[in-house]
Design goal:
Keywords: Membrane, Transmembrane, Transmembrane helix. 63% of the residues lie in helices and 6% in strands. The protein is mostly helical. The chain has one domain. 32% of the residues are buried.
Length: 295
């Protein structure tokens, strides 16, 4: 059995993996909080996609790959199968997206959260072990079944809590605290699953095919940067809840026109009574006797 080192570069890789999981969790929780307040089905779907990308792509899969950078096996090189690695990323995003769709539509209930958490947790575990199956080395991989079951249980519990927080947390401080907890859960699941791994080297060393870590690192880092910038831009460009409330108020408010003054009615005056009446001319004085011409 080969010697395994999970922290070849010291604390750098676990610290970066935890930071990525917290960053992705913050963005995912903020995007998920917009799902239930979105005014249309299209906007709810849009925020669901962004939340799935942030949670599944950044908080879970990118964290997994960053932690794998510190994984080393004594006596063997490690390469990665690119199609299987890409498939593991898609599994994470799709699993989180389906979980958000389960809890984000209809009335929020305990049953919905449990079903969504079970499905999402199973998807996260599948992502993790698919990513590990993408490793190519001069050896055979083995797993401790008890620790594998424990990692799956942690994934299901973490996914359930994450979905519940995604649908209930709204304020900034609560989102940040929730992201810290989710980062611990995601990293705990990853390293629990990694501790279940054992490697048995082949007697004859052969050529290891696949992409090196450095080859995959550059596109993944660029993907994370553009993805995070895109998520932040989408959040900043979207109207806030106050903006939506103000727009709804202005849309339903009815502006009443000012009351118009009644138009004057021109009453016929055939005998000239209006000209003789002093009531029709405010401020007019009664004529005196000397104003009348002598008869």
């Amino acid at each position: 059995m080969a010697e395994i080192n999970h922290f070849e570069y010291g604390w750098i890789t676990p610290a970066l993996s935890y930071a990525l999981s917290v960053l992705g969790s913050i963005l995912g929780l903020v995007c998920a909080s917009r799902i239930r307040t979105a005014p249309s089905a299209g906007q709810r779907a849009w925020w669901g996609v962004l939340a799935a990308w942030a949670l599944g792509g950044t908080a879970i899969w990118t964290m997994h790959f960053m932690a794998m950078l510190g994984f080393a096996v004594t006596g063997s090189r490690i390469r990665y199968d690119v199609p299987v690695t890409v498939a593991s990323a898609l599994i994470a995003v799709v699993a989180v997206g389906i979980g958000l769709a389960i809890v984000g539509t209809g009335r929020l209930s305990v049953v919905r959260v449990l079903v969504g958490g079970l499905f999402t947790g199973a998807g996260v575990a599948a992502m993790h072990y698919t990513g590990m199956a993408a490793m190519r080395m001069d050896g055979r991989l083995g797993y401790d079944q008890v620790r594998v079951a424990l990692s799956v249980l942690i994934a299901v519990v973490a996914a359930t809590v994450a979905l519940w927080l995604a649908m209930t947390v709204r304020r900034g401080l609560a989102i940040f605290a929730s992201a810290l907890v989710m980062g611990v859960a995601v990293n705990g699941m990853h390293f629990t699953g990694m501790s279940a791994l054992s490697v048995h080297l082949h007697e004859r060393q052969g050529d290891v095919t696949g992409a090196e870590v450095g080859t995959l690192l550059i596109p993944i880092v660029l993907l994370v940067i553009f993805g995070v910038v895109g998520l932040i831009y989408a959040l900043l460009a979207a109207p806030t809840d106050d903006d939506l409330a103000a727009a709804a108020y202005l849309g339903t408010r009815q502006v009443r026109p000012a009351a118009a003054e009644p138009a004057a009615v021109d009453v016929p005056d055939p005998v000239g009574l209006r000209a003789r009446s002093t009531l029709a001319r405010p401020g007019a004085q009664f004529p005196s006797r000397r104003d009348h011409p002598p008869r």
